[in-house]
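@channel sequence for tomorrow's demo:
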Amino acid sequence: MSARAHILKSHTIRTYDRGLLAAMLLLIAFGALMIYSSTSVITPVLARRNISEFYYFKRHMFTMALGFLVFFFTYRINPAFLKRAAVPLLICSFILLLMVFLPHIGVTAGGARRWIRLWPTTFQPSELVKLSMVIFLARYLSMPSYNPDSFSSFVQPILVMAAFQVVFLKQPDFGSTMSLAFLTFAMLFISGMRMRYIASVLVLAIPIVYKLVMEPYRLRRITSFLDPWKEPLGSGFQLVQSFIALGSGGVTGLGLGESKQKLAFLPASHTDFIFCLVGEELGLVGASVLISLFVFLFTRGISISNRSQDKFVCYLSYGLTLMISLQALINFAVVTGLVPTKGLPLPFLSYGGSALLVNMAAIGFLLRISRGDEAVPEHENRTAKIRRIARRNIYGGKGVQA
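structure tokens (generated this afternoon):
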């Protein structure tokens, strides 16, 4: 290999996707701005709790600081190590998921037990489950024994998914149940799994989904989704307020900080329905910019996957990109009334530490993959390491003396 080719190869390995990094930073900055805007007004509810206008914003800044630590940590992890850690990480996430039911550890909010108590805040294990499942599926789909034409190869990840979904439904967390199913089936479809296998499971799941949907509170969500104006002060209240917020913004919006719906009208304006606040204050222009950032993030992630020369890394890139993009797509669909309310946050924007930490970890993995480290054969990595050690010993005065 010529010296020029060697330099070009080294440069390729050390370069990360700056566009993807820029998209993440812009989304995080966008989110911090909108969280401050949505929580800077003291409503009667906050006043009774003696909470200042900076309470949520300062907590979000703390989470962002932790997120960047996680981001830099995951960026330094080699994909080969991640492949070896796939199963232990999946088991660890399952244990954490079960810990929400333990007294004094699990935290209940809104009638659901989805969080565990970690100083100085709480953590939602379901977010880690999605990341762990992506890594596990990438490892599983890249195994030499995996055969997309084999029904047994199809059943194994489905059983793993079902085990997590059972725990999700006990919490209950129907949103995480459905998002994990979308993610799993999407990765199986990408791997070339036969459609008749996927369709058979979907058909068999219809009675289970029907029984879950017929729960009174879930049924009210569906009926209010179909006609929210039928009960504008009841089950359709949140969706109606969402429509009002989006419609009030017009093309250019009311102006940053000028939202009316955040004055205790729109529930979850700083969490699941923060996109409505973007539409109200920044209008169609701001909402379009935000959607464009997610589209750009999706295209960069797919581009990274297409450039990968290793099957595990390829599937991992696809999975991480879909994990973020599908959740954003579902959130957009919920707040615009295209699907029933799922209770899923908007990645990088919604207030909530667990989702932000996991999504920043996913971007860290993607940026590491974008460097192309997996393209270097393992024996070349060992040779380069030996050479670095030899140079360090020589320059440190430990070379062999004549």
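heads up for whoever presents: The beta strands are 106-109, 112-118, 121-123.
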